[in-house]
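Structure (tokenized):
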């Protein structure tokens, strides 16, 4: 997916700010820090950022599903139209646990719950 130039500039500023924060912390001795610790810090920031982006995109997708497709979705098992209701969904992603709100449906015939976006 393409990233706009504005976002790329913001990313550069964010990276510089994170480097300043990390190296300026009390008790942080950058001279003696191992690369493993540097890597751990960078990786943690990356995971947090990725999880936040995934959560935001999934919630935006849920809004689109709610507004453009109405409130009823066909059950993937039997085809019966089912009414959507607000729900929460938790996924384990490459970047850890991500929880977001998303419409869900319950088919009374199949006694199964499904997410319209899945
Ligand atoms: Zn069904």
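Design, position by position:
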């Amino acid at each position: 997916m393409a990233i706009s130039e504005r976002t790329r500039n913001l990313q550069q500023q964010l990276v510089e700010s994170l480097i300043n924060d990390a190296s300026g912390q009390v008790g942080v001795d950058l001279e003696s820090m191992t690369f493993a610790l540097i890597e751990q810090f960078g990786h943690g920031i990356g995971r947090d950022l990725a999880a936040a982006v995934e959560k935001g995109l999934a919630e935006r997708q849920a809004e689109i599903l709610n507004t453009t497709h109405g409130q009823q979705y066909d059950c993937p098992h039997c085809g019966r139209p089912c009414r959507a209701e607000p729900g929460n969904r938790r996924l384990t992603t490459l970047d850890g646990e991500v929880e977001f709100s998303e419409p869900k449906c319950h088919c009374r015939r199949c006694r199964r719950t499904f997410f319209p976006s899945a």
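Reviewer-requested clarification: The chain has a mean pLDDT of 87. The CA atoms of residues 12 and 61 lie 27 Å apart.
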